[in-house]
């Protein structure tokens, strides 16, 4: 019937997958960033608050930029551009995470899971000293050599999210017939909600294995990129 004709199309699947990815990626990133910076750089609430504040500014700048880009480029081009930006950020993250020694220290993981010691690297070091029976007070060392790559990853990720969020929703509305817009919006909102729920659920157990989460997310965005390329001509300008 009309629903099958409208929704059982590859280009519609591509846009719904993009919607799911947008909110899965956003919520999983929000879930994992704070414990990541705590483990990797020894950050406290202040540094993480500043990071989220800067991220919010980048998102606002991105939204404003899309407003001007829409005058020169159509939605599908901006969507593809946003996907490429996020893919680049995820590739950078996958390139650096295997070399992050901080995530290879099981004693650090056990200590950081104890809320009593999460706010102080000195207390964390003391925990490791007690658990290992050693007087080496430098067992936890925060390595900032990967900090520029981390900032670049987060910056690219939040920069690309508004582009794919806006353009996927816009293209979906244009592709679906006006007679079934209500059902279409319901489906899209349902997919959005599923992505919002599954993001933290997947990120939570992988806090100490961020490379696994980032690899899954990268595989997802590569699949979406291929879908968009295949259906590019069918996406309404």
The secondary-structure class comes to: mainly alpha
- What is the general shape? elongated
Helical content band = over 70%
N to C succession of SSEs: HHHHHHHHH
What's the overall average pLDDT, rounded?
A: 82
- Terminus-to-terminus distance: 26 Å
Describe this structure in words.
The chain has 237 residues and is an all-alpha fold. The chain is built from 9 helices and no strands. α2 runs antiparallel to α7 and α2 packs parallel to α8. The protein is elongated and about 60 Å long. It starts with a helix and ends in a 6-residue tail after the last helix. About 11% of the residues have low confidence.
Short recap of the structure:
The protein is 75% helix and 0% strand.
List the helices and strands and how they pair.
Blueprint: H1 2-7, H2 10-41, H3 45-69, H4 75-96, H5 106-112, H6 121-132, H7 147-175, H8 181-203, H9 210-231
Helix pairs in contact: 2-7, 2-8, 2-9, 3-7, 4-7, 4-9, 5-6
Q: Which properties best describe this structure?
A:
single chain, 237 residues, mainly alpha, 9 helices, 0% strand, elongated
